[in-house]
Amino acid sequence: KRPAGAPDKDLARKVTKVGIIGAGLMASQFAILFVRRLQVPVVITDLDQARVDKGLGYIRDEIGTLEQKGRIDADEANRLRALVTGTTDKADFADCDWVIEAVFEDLAVKQQVFAEVEPFLSETAVIATNTSSLSVEQIGAKLAHPERVVGFHFFNPVAVMPLLEIVKAPATDDETLATAFAVAAKLKKSAVLTADAPGFVVNRLLAKVMGEAARAVDEGTPVPVVEKALAPIGLPMGPFELIDLVGWAVAAHVQDTMVREFPERFYSSENLHALAKLGGPVVEKDKHGKVTDLS
Ligand code: CAA
């Protein structure tokens, strides 16, 4: 069944090579998902070779974990590893028909990385942004072909969370949108089309929860109490554990965007921002990075 708002799937373009801008944790998780589900070459890039190598190391290790868990066999693991390459040369993106960024959550940075790569791409290559709250229209505004820019917003952990927000900017054309839905289906994600509005849908709601949780702590309620208070309404993790999962800097940026766009509706916690500047609080975690003690 065609998802609500998705154009005719016959308009979708074929994706034979994927380019990923960024080689951090999120970008590396994209690389694993794309190579596994699309079975096409995936190239990652970052500011320097050291960052690229770190990303490639993580990707190779995680493919090893998939093999250990029995999700893929040794031949598949080797094939997937061989399909993922790294580069610092944007010319290696020339034959990519799908490019996605997972760089710092800042409008100017996202505009710049796309402006740098666009001259190397074919006119029909899709340019997808994983922005969590910025305007997709503005991210594409300085490009020669903004009609092939689309929001493609994943959730942490990328491999596990089933949802994907596809964001249509006013300029996004039907071919781009159809390709985005086709790629989402191949990635086995459940895609929903959202308006190009601040925070889209999920982060607009999450920013409210996170902001009110931070406000409760600022008012004097201890963190563990706030964490436990939300369990009975069915959230799989408390708001601060969730902030830790998505990253304190990302959470602070989403909060900033929402406060900037809707100052009367969202709460900005100075404590949350101070912690984000420090890279988050020092908390005990198990070997999977799960917080064991937030007190
Ligand atoms: N990173 C990668 N994989 C992880 C992980 C992590 N941090 N945590 C768990 N997993 C994997 C495990 O390895 C396991 O995979 P396998 O099945 O392959 O073995 C799988 O997830 C299930 O793990 P658990 O049995 O430990 O599951 P759990 O019941 O503790 O659930 C959870 C873990 C899925 C993370 C769950 O707590 C959850 O859904 N939390 C809420 C997450 C959420 O709301 N994410 C959205 C954040 S907002 C965002 O990302 C958008 C943004 O722009 C900021």
From TrEMBL:
Domain of life: Bacteria
Residue ranges of domain 3-hydroxyacyl-CoA dehydrogenase NAD binding in the record: 17-196
Residue ranges constituting the 3-hydroxyacyl-CoA dehydrogenase C-terminal domain according to the UniProt record: 199-279
Family recorded in the similarity comment: Belongs to the 3-hydroxyacyl-CoA dehydrogenase family.
Name of the featured protein: 3-hydroxyacyl-CoA dehydrogenase
Taxonomic lineage of the native organism: Bacteria, Bacillati, Actinomycetota, Actinomycetes, Micrococcales
Full-protein residues shown: 329 to 623 of 714
